[in-house]
Design goal:
- With 517 residues, the protein is of the alpha/beta class.
- The protein has 3 domains: 106 residues, MurE/MurF, N-terminal domain (Udp-n-acetylmuramoylalanyl-d-glutamate--2,6- Diaminopimelate Ligase, Chain: A, domain 1), CATH 3.40.1390.10; 234 residues, UDP-N-acetylmuramoyl-L-alanine:D-glutamate ligase (3-Layer(aba) Sandwich); 161 residues, Alpha-Beta Complex (Protein-Tyrosine Phosphatase, Chain A).
- It has an 11-stranded mixed sheet, sandwiched between helices. A 6-stranded mixed sheet has the order 16-17-21-18-19-20, sandwiched between helices. It has a 4-stranded parallel sheet with strand order 1-2-3-4.
- The protein is globular.
Length: 517
């Protein structure tokens, strides 16, 4: 879930350039710029100081052009602005460019020494599966001796070091700072999630990609993108970045079972790009797998280039086979062989908050999952149903985010009521909306309201679901937050962890039962 990238800023190190050299680089225009060296670049006016180039960027809710006066007052040496914007009357050198986001991305890359040019970069986009595909790619590469870092929703990581992240795809300065750090720590590769927000806001525009992975496309972020078509074209932009990459042997990895993926595949073939495809049902796939035999035994049977392979996996959820297949092809594209990857498949674990088993007891289990789209929720519920069987009771707890795509609320209600035996509808980051109005939107998609219970307080909903599950037996899925540990109510970000709440209620119930016996 993306927030405004203007809220997270770091300054870039000095550019080995003078002010008068910058306009040509960023396709800009300026008059009579001094030959002053730039000591830092920032898009946060509060961090501006003498020697700083302040880049005015228009974000989702904040426009940097409105803070030019503050940047000048703080002593910045020059300002980079977007063509056509109204500007205050100031005494400060100006560089005018068509797109400040693109220019900022370029300058960030240059200031950190263009680190992506010296790393093997896997970029992953798609509605669902980005985090797990990146996670698997990083783990597999490290297992076969390719030191790899990772950028994504669950953090920015390299072997033995974790950096928290607030965005799926950080701002350009953070991306290139981390890539430089990865390179300095001896990494050879980096797998990174590139969201539709990150693509449209040019955050990764100057990352030189070796492998571009497309996982799938379903409804999401239509509060940000004006239409599904616009959302689709935002995802396509990763292949524009791939086509511009100077990396030899660059290639694309595509989900062959996805209609949009097939469209992207045809376009890439016409462009002459190297493409490999994976899936369970498509034809002429480079890697095909049997999703029907996975379920409880967790045997991953697949074919790569018509050669059969088999591996026992530690995780559940048939949809995760798509993420694993994408990761295998990405690693192969970087030079690994299926044979050397195969023994490490059984070592893989899912990322935090991705169909994560929090409680596993006889007759009762509870999972948390990040699923916050209709397709992701369906995948998680189907994955659990496959694993626990048809006879065991399946309970779902979920809500929908406030001030986000309203159209998916009823769709998620329909999915949950169709696939779960009992549904607790609750709150999930209501923000400035009335939680009951959000819940009303969810209920519009529920044909059988008898199996649903509305509990707006998420803590109370989890408590009721756990007590219900313990009494009657079965499996609980708490969806929407996964690894996240907060609840946004109004403008306040309050600590809240589904994992913590689950364990607290379960421990209290176990103690209560023990005392009463």
């Amino acid at each position: 879930m993306e927030s405004d990238p203007l809220l997270d800023c770091i300054n870039c190190p000095p550019l080995n350039l003078t002010l008068d050299e910058i306009p040509h680089l960023v396709k800009g225009k300026a008059a009579c710029l001094p030959k002053e060296h730039i000591s830092s670049i920032t898009r946060d006016s509060r961090l501006a100081k003498p020697g700083t180039l302040f880049v005015a960027i228009r974000g989702n809710t904040v426009d940097g052009h409105n803070f030019i006066t503050e940047a000048v007052a703080n002593g910045c040496s020059a300002i980079l602005v977007e063509r056509g914007r109204s500007l205050p009357d100031i005494e400060c050198p100006l560089i005018v460019v068509p797109d400040t986001k693109w220019a900022y991305s370029l300058l960030c890359s240059l200031s950190f020494g263009s680190p992506s040019s010296s790393l093997r970069i896997i970029g992953v986009t798609g509605t669902n599966g980005k985090t797990t595909t990146c996670w698997f790619s990083e783990k597999l590469l490290n297992s076969v001796g390719v030191k790899c870092s990772r950028i994504g929703t669950v953090g920015m990581d390299m072997p033995e070091e974790h950096t928290p992240a607030s965005l799926t795809t950080p701002d350009a300065a953070t991306i290139h700072w981390f890539l430089r750090k990865s390179l300095d720590r001896g990494c050879n590769a980096c797998s990174m999630e590139i969201s539709s927000h990150g693509l449209t806001q040019s955050r990764a525009d100057h990352v030189e990609i070796d492998v571009a992975v497309y996982t799938n496309l379903s409804r999401d972020h239509l509060d940000y993108h004006s239409s599904f078509e616009e959302y689709k074209m935002a995802k396509w932009k990763i292949f524009d970045l791939l086509a511009k990459s100077p990396k030899p042997g660059r290639s694309a990895v595509i989900n062959g079972d996805c209609e949009v993926g097939s469209e992207f595949y045809m376009r890439l073939c016409k462009m002459g790009e190297r493409v490999s495809r994976y899936g369970a049902y498509g034809e002429d796939l480079d890697l095909s797998f049997d999703i029907n035999t996975f379920s409880k035994e967790r045997i991953f049977q697949f074919r790569y280039k018509a050669v059969p392979y088999s591996a026992r996996l530690s995780f559940i959820g048939g949809y995760n086979l798509y993420n694993l297949a994408a990761a295998i092809l990405a690693c192969v594209a970087l030079g690994s062989s299926v044979e050397e990857l195969l023994p490490h498949l059984e070592e893989l674990r899912l990322p935090p908050g991705r169909l994560e088993a929090v409680i596993e007891e006889d007759g009762f289990s509870a999972y948390i999952d990040y699923s916050h789209t209709p397709s992701a929720l369906e995948g998680a519920l189907r994955g659990l149903r496959e694993y626990i069987g048809e006879e065991e009771r399946l309970i779902a707890v979920f809500g929908c985010g406030g001030e986000r795509d309203m159209g998916k609320r009823a769709l998620m209600g329909e999915v949950a009521s169709r696939l779960a035996d009992k549904v607790y509808i609750t709150s999930d980051n209501p923000r400035g909306e009335d939680p009951m109005e959000i819940i009303a939107g969810i209920l519009k998609g529920v044909p059988n309201k008898a199996r649903c219970r509305v509990v707006p307080d998420r803590r109370e909903a989890i408590k009721e679901a756990v007590i219900d599950g313990i009494k009657s037996g079965g499996c609980i899925l708490i969806a929407g937050k996964g690894h996240e540990d907060y609840q946004i109510v109004g403008k306040k970000k309050l600590h809240f962890s589904d994992r913590e709440e689950l364990l607290k209620v379960f421990d209290n119930e176990v103690k209560r039962k023990g005392l009463s016996q």
